[in-house]
């Protein structure tokens, strides 16, 4: 395969990769999603990531039909990356894309949820030991030795199910022997590290001492003479004793190294030390070859276990990272809906951007439950869903309409609901657990997510229509999540265009949620569409808006300017400013404003 056949690889990129990695290694790096290899070769990390998303994710990235959908996707990846146990795992998370095959989605879900359950069952000390092992693995750039030590740490922690099976099947004794061999041979092959063999350490220490003596031979001679040595015989004996004491060489080695034809003390000492250096160097080489051969034989005998450990530890790092993410946000397995027509439903769904993850990052003593007291879970559904219950206070079950028009209070969570649905669908299609008690998802071919953009000009309108309409026109399953379309054109035209979008979504049998304040101007809606509403309920004692974020189905929500005006009146310090806000209070209903402020004070007294 030619490198140019990969998306994003042109002649210049091909030349860079071929020059730095070679063609085969470059292809291997792309196929395996190795961001670091491409970045080290000279590609910008962002570009490398984009290339690999296309190469490893296939057409899944095309599901993201708008720039806002792509932004939401990247935001999810950023959240998940925070729980990566290695840099390589973080890189692999960044190249995950929506999957196009249902079996692949379920397979990844199986792995991540099995890893989640296994990780949740571990004692805190065992979790810490595994994370420490992965930290060392990361610091040592995923060397074979670090991989084997990490596999041993996983075995010691007792993880033996799901994606950990590949390690659980390995023999601990073989891995331990391989770890010792790799520790001894760490570095250039044929070289043995200090501490691996006592005899080799002794010879190396002796050589180092002899080399130091040789470098300071004249000082040594003066030292021996200062001890009262008077003749050649005494000098010879004193020198021999010094060598035996300082170097731990044998007496035979010393005597064999001493020359018989030295002309003076300098010649005698220098010749002896040079001979000893040569003898010790030869002995070291011989011993090192023997020891290295033994360790290499051990390593070869356990090569299969080492290779399995290297592959397993890297894959486990990915699944473990995703498992920690799922635990931190209390994510559950989504159900994939069958059938020709798409459906999306969530029960107790939470927006990940607002949810506060478990304080222990999935490693705490509470089992990884998400701390989301301030985030109201939402139930919502589109299409042929399975939702049969709704939260207390909502007196209707969502119908099976494929399209909804979502109305209601300012700051009422309408945009957050769109984001939540987007997050659930994206995570499910990536084969990852979702932040909901239950969720049913039909994978879509196009996800159209459009956030509110307060730019009022023809160029913005045209570009928006160019991004949101084509996915509906090309066939396949489409999910439309459109926020305040009216913000980009005048209200009259906006209502007409939005009605057309709703109608087109219904006609194409797509799913859609359209957030708007123009619900009354959209009547009559197609029969496959409904209007849902979110309601504000007043102000709390701090004069903050109280909102029930759970939509009420088949109910038009209403904006609540009187609550906002009430807060402005109460907070006005300047007399003139207060008078201005009181004029607005009369416009929206002064009695309503006063009642709102009284209710807030009563709530404070209670």
UniProtKB/TrEMBL annotation:
InterPro entries, per database record: DNA_mismatch_repair_MutS_C, DNA_mismatch_repair_MutS_core, DNA_mismatch_repair_MutS_sf, MutS, P-loop_NTPase
A GO molecular function held by the record: ATP binding
Chain ranges of the DNA mismatch repair proteins mutS family domain: 401-577
Keywords: ATP-binding, DNA-binding, Nucleotide-binding
Pfam family, one: MutS_V
Domain DNA mismatch repair protein MutS core, chain residue ranges per copy: 71-357
Coiled coil: none
The keyword ATP-binding is annotated on this UniProt entry: yes
Top-rank lineage group of the source organism: Archaea
An annotated GO BP: mismatch repair
Name of the protein this chain belongs to: DNA mismatch repair protein MutS
Native source organism of the sequence: Natronolimnohabitans innermongolicus JCM 12255
């Amino acid at each position: 395969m030619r490198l140019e056949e990969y998306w994003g690889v042109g002649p210049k990129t091909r030349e860079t990769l071929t020059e730095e990695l070679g063609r085969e290694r470059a292809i291997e790096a792309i196929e395996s999603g190795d961001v670091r290899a491409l970045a080290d070769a000279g590609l910008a990390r962002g570009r490398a990531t984009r290339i690999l998303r296309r190469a490893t994710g296939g057409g899944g990235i095309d599901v993201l039909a708008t720039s806002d959908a792509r932004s939401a996707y990247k935001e999810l990846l950023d959240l998940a990356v925070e729980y990566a146990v290695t840099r390589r795992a973080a890189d692999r998370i960044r190249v995950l894309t929506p999957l196009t095959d249902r079996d692949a989605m379920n397979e990844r879900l199986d792995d991540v949820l099995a890893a989640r359950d296994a990780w949740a069952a571990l004692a805190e000390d065992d979790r810490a030991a595994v994370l420490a092992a992965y930290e060392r693995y990361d610091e040592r750039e995923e060397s074979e030795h670090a991989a084997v030590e990490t596999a041993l740490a996983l075995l010691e922690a007792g993880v033996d199910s799901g994606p950990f099976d590949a390690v659980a099947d390995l023999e601990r004794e073989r891995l331990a022997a391989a770890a010792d061999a790799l520790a001894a041979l760490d570095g250039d092959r044929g070289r043995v590290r200090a501490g691996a063999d006592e005899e080799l350490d002794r010879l190396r220490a002796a050589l180092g001492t002899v080399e130091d003596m040789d470098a300071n031979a004249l000082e040594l001679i003066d030292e021996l003479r200062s001890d009262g040595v008077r003749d050649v015989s005494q000098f010879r004996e004193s020198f021999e004793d010094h060598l035996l004491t300082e170097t731990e060489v044998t007496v035979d080695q010393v005597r064999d190294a001493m020359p018989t034809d030295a002309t003076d003390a300098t010649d005698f000492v220098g010749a002896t030390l040079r001979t000893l250096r040569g003898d010790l160097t030869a002995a070291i080489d011989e011993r090192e070859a023997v020891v290295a051969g033994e360790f290499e034989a051990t390593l070869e005998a356990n090569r299969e276990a080492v290779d399995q450990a290297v592959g397993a530890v890297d894959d486990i790092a990915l699944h473990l990272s995703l498992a920690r993410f799922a635990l931190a946000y209390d994510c559950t397995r989504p159900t994939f809906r069958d059938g020709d027509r798409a459906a999306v439903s969530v029960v107790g769904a939470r927006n990940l951007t607002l949810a506060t993850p478990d304080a222990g990052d999935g490693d705490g003593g509470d089992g990884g439950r998400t701390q989301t007291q301030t985030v109201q879970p939402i139930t919502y559904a589109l299409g042929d869903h399975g939702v049969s219950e709704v939260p207390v206070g909502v007196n209707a079950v969502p119908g099976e309409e494929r399209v909804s028009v979502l109305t209601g209070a300012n700051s009422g969570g309408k945009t957050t609901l769109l984001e939540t649905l987007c997050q659930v669908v994206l995570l499910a299609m990536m084969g990852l657990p979702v932040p909901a008690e239950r969720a049913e998802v039909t994978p879509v071919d196009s996800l159209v997510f459009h956030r509110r953009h307060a730019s009022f000009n023809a160029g913005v309108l045209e570009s928006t229509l160019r991004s949101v309409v084509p996915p509906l026109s090309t066939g396949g399953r489409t999910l439309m999540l459109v926020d305040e379309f009216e913000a980009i054109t005048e209200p009259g035209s906006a209502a007409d265009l939005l009605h057309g979008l709703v109608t087109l979504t219904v006609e194409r049998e797509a799913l859609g949620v359209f957030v708007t304040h123009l619900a009354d101007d959209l009547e009559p809606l197609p029969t496959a569409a409904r209007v849902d509403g979110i309601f504000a309920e007043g102000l709390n004692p701090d004069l903050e808006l109280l909102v029930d974020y759970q939509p009420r189905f088949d109910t038009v929500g209403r904006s609540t300017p009187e609550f906002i005006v009430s807060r402005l009146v109460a907070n006005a310090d300047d007399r003139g400013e207060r008078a201005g806000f009181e004029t607005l209070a009369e416009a929206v209903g002064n009695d309503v404003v006063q009642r709102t402020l009284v209710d807030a004070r009563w709530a404070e007294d209670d």
